[in-house]
């Protein structure tokens, strides 16, 4: 879904008001973020929110391989115990999650199980609106990070999205976060480097419009170069992998690779910008058919991008204060469908990682036999996760953002 269509949908749905969208839709560039370098408290933590659009299958991500009900419900989709990356003698990670498995062994990956909300909704947009606004009963017109932004002073650069459209979660009552999309547009390749540099250079006495055009071109060149470096580092073989550069689906997700988005986050963290919360995403997880191979490809992209980012962050003091949260709008049905896929479900997992995270398994694993009309019953309210991130990472009172919510995750941060 392109930026304009997504924005129209959000306004029409009433999830985000036009005023808030307009506030966040201003043209922000990478330079606008870098201009805040040195403006933040060196002890402050940073939140990086990774959204997996489409409804990632949590049961084939964090796999209850020892539960006979798992294999009985999805005989063709189930993984055997020897295939998974074991976390303990009951559960393991998808074979594609080798990097996250390593981080778990280092005590830096927390798996929060059974995360959901009351009266779950299986619509992509409705469920994602609930996650973005943190209101299961009646999704409001502001996002939970947008409301945090209101309490933090309202500077859009404190909460930044590297996605093609401003996500509802960054829309506040009085303003919204900044949208700095990473695109796959290219600068001209036929021009020599001196000519390209001249187009990006400001000249004395030129009009404001021409100066702005030169600045925009310079920023585009900078972003293109960052994206190129990330892709080159991935290696030629990875670029040939099936689905590696698949575009976003209608359910959302940035059109650029997740590792390119996280590279820009890393650049900002290393520069010490004022931004406290970043939003990035990957789409394509709506696996109704032929799920197993497709999900492994997608999870492989997530694994490579997130673990490379985590390893890079571990090298600096500012990076070691970063907490990454990975989630999707819902999980999938317990039982496989007739197309070797899974349909829209309910509860799933949230992954938290970083040096400040106490690794391990959190929350009660939902039963695979005591179901709600074929779906998992949630055991952890997603607002417990949000409240913990607000309190421990963003240093704010969760009650002011989450309408007095008192639940927390214990011991994870």
Automatic annotation (TrEMBL):
Query: What segment(s) does the record annotate as region Disordered?
Result: 232-254
Q: Which domain of life is it from?
A: Bacteria
For this UniProt entry, which residues form the secretion signal? 1-22
**Which keywords does the record carry?**
Signal
Q: Which Pfam families is this protein grouped with?
A: DUF1501 (PF07394)
In terms of PROSITE patterns, this protein maps to: TAT
Which residue windows does the record flag with biased composition (Low complexity)?
A: 244-254
PANTHER family hit by this protein = BLL7424 PROTEIN, DUF1501 DOMAIN-CONTAINING PROTEIN
Q: What is this protein called?
A: DUF1501 domain-containing protein
Q: Which organism is it from?
A: Micromonospora endolithica
